[in-house]
Write a structure and sequence with these properties.
By secondary structure, this protein is an alpha+beta fold. Helix content is 38%, strand content 18%. The protein has eleven helices and nine strands. The chain starts with 16 loop residues before the first strand and ends in a 9-residue tail after the last helix. It binds magnesium ion.
């Protein structure tokens, strides 16, 4: 390669690019002098070594690339849509997998202080989150289950969902933006005495889980996290309320196990952890309830009963929940 006409010498440059270019060509003989030539019907793949792909000379020597991608147009009106669109990257989620979109409040520590949320849990703030999740599920029918704790919510889409053609950015952005808008719209209903001082925002991500078992492992992980955090926070804030500083409370709890925290609550504060509200200990599960034949809506199609979204605070780690609600992850639904 060294000294090959038109290419930088490998030994004398610091940045070497190895390009694999799949281009449509009219005259394949043109590339016979290339490093490697692979023929395929109508398209050739060539490997090109270049010392500097940012140089104008590289692009003028490979004018076929400009033909494929569009050229550096002087006049913006002449820019080809295909050229501009060629920069777009679409992440399509694996087919036949359970898509989970988890959203999480951004800077909610400060947000909760600013709005004087009760510590360690503010029931109304959690009810607001749950109400937003119900609205999301009613809006996006492919979501079959959601689980929320603190300032986060996980939305599970049915396995064969074709929502937004399974494009991650589309799915995540509409769920996050709809949830955020709902949070603002519903604020007054939950906090009539409090002004919303700053716009809440949420980040979001989509992850695919290939089997029901792994999906349930994911949900169990979130519920275990809910328990661990809630138990810690309950101890922490009781210590604060009893006069300890934040760092004293942190030191006090450092290295303690679940059983010790449980005993601390009983012995020092007379609190039986198991009697705390289910919503604080178990988080919130939101799902379409089974059809209720006794409840009929006049505006339902053909007078049929309609399913509705319910919020429950229950143990979703145990098999019994899923046995009692087989329709949730039923792929035939
Ligand atoms: Mg957060």
């Amino acid at each position: 390669m060294d000294g090959r006409k038109g290419y930088g010498r490998l030994g004398s440059v610091t940045g070497i690019a190895l390009l694999k270019i799949d281009i449509q060509v009219e005259d394949s003989d043109k590339y016979k002098d290339g490093e490697t030539l692979v023929k395929s019907p109508g398209r050739n793949v060539i490997l090109v070594y270049s010392g500097n792909i940012a140089s104008r000379s590289f692009w003028s020597e490979h004018s076929c690339l400009l033909k494929e991608l569009g050229s550096f147009e002087e006049d913006i009106n002449k820019v080809k849509p295909e050229y501009v669109k060629s920069f777009e990257f679409v992440r399509k989620l694996l087919p036949s997998t359970w898509i989970v979109v988890r959203i999480d409040g951004r800077h909610f520590h400060g947000f909760s202080e600013e709005h004087e949320f009760e510590k360690p849990n503010d029931g109304q703030a959690l009810n607001l989150m749950n109400s937003c999740a119900v609205a999301v599920m009613e809006e996006f029918k492919d979501i079959v289950f959601s689980y929320g704790v603190s300032d986060e919510f996980s939305f599970v889409l049915k396995r064969d969902s074709q929502f937004h053609d399974r494009h991650a950015s589309g799915i995540v952005s509409v769920i996050v933006s709809f949830f955020s808008s709902m949070y603002v719209m519903k604020w007054k209903g939950f906090f009539p005495e409090k002004e919303l001082k700053n716009p809440p925002s949420f980040d979001g991500r989509a992850v695919c889980y290939p089997t029901k078992e792994i999906l349930r492992d994911y949900l169990a992980w979130r519920q275990v996290d809910c328990h661990i955090n809630n138990q810690y926070n309950t101890c922490f804030w009781m210590l604060i309320k009893s006069g300890k500083s934040k760092s004293e409370a942190q030191d006090y709890l450092k290295g303690t196990r679940a059983q010790e925290k449980s005993e601390l609550l009983v012995q020092q504060f007379g609190i039986d952890y198991q009697t705390l509200p289910d919503m604080f200990r178990q988080g919130s599960s939101v799902f379409w309830d089974k059809e209720d034949p006794t409840e009929r809506y006049s505006d339902g199609p053909d007078g049929k009963s309609r399913k509705k979204v319910v919020v429950e605070h229950c143990n979703i780690i145990e098999q019994s929940f899923w046995e009692a609600h087989p329709n949730i992850l039923d792929e035939e639904r």
